[in-house]
Amino acid sequence: MAPAEIVLHTALACHTRCVPKNISRRAHVILPVDLVADIDKLVGKRGRSAFLTEVARDEIQRRQQRNALRAAKGAWKDADHPELKDGAAAWVSRMRAESETRFKEIKQRRKPS
After folding, report:
1. CA 24, 28, 29: angle at the middle one, nearest 5?
2. Is residue 50 within 8 Å of 43, Cβ to Cβ?
3. What is the value of pTM for the model shown?
4. Where are the domains of the chain?
5. CA separation (Å) from 71 to 21, 39, 78, 85?
6. Cα–Cα distance for residue pair 85/78, rounded to 1 Å
7. At what angle do helices 33-43 and 48-71 cross, to 10 degrees?
8. Within 10 A of 108 (CB to CB), how many other CB atoms are there?
9. 12-64 residue pLDDT tens
10. Cα–Cα distance measured from residue 16 to residue 45, given in angstroms and rounded to the nearest whole number
11. C-alpha span between 110 and 113 (Å, rounded)
């Protein structure tokens, strides 16, 4: 094995069973002692990497969604959607009522004479 292969193999083998075995990179992260103790209480010392990975992924997704919402600000124009002038709940109620009416009409037509 070449030295790079040995390092990669060692890095993959040292992760806990909770961390996916795909390619990972070590990152030196400094955390307050009390925070590490709280993490250990929740997931144990061998669950730190998996826990921090999950928390980081969740936070990245949350921030990306927030950024997308900020970027889309102003895209919705009330003038383009007059059907919602009374609010979305009222529109949904009307749509449901119309569906119910159509269903009853179809049912009446299908009844044998």
Report:
1. 110
2. yes
3. 0.54
4. 3-71, 78-110
5. 35, 34, 18, 24
6. 7
7. 100
8. 8
9. 445 455 556 678 899 999 999 999 999 999 999 999 999 999 999 999 999 99
10. 10
11. 9
